[in-house]
Amino acid sequence: MLLPDQRRDLRKSYKRILWFILGVFLFDAFICYLFFRYTNMHPVLNGFIIICITAVLYLLFLVICAKIDKKKKEKLEANRNKDPFTKK
What we know:
By secondary structure, this protein is mainly alpha-helical. Helix content is 81%, strand content 0%.
């Protein structure tokens, strides 16, 4: 059974991956169109290039998401002891 925090994190990661897949699919479709339209490349080579591009973009996506999560966690830890009702 998942705890509420784990469910929220899982839902957040699903949304991130969904947006990533949507964006990469559109980008890959555009690259495929350009390859088929303007080059005489073999379809297997075209597919291999698309897979390599997608893998590099996914690794970049993971690094960026890890940095964002780390900054959010540090910000929450820093503001944990702060009283929200007092003005400084």
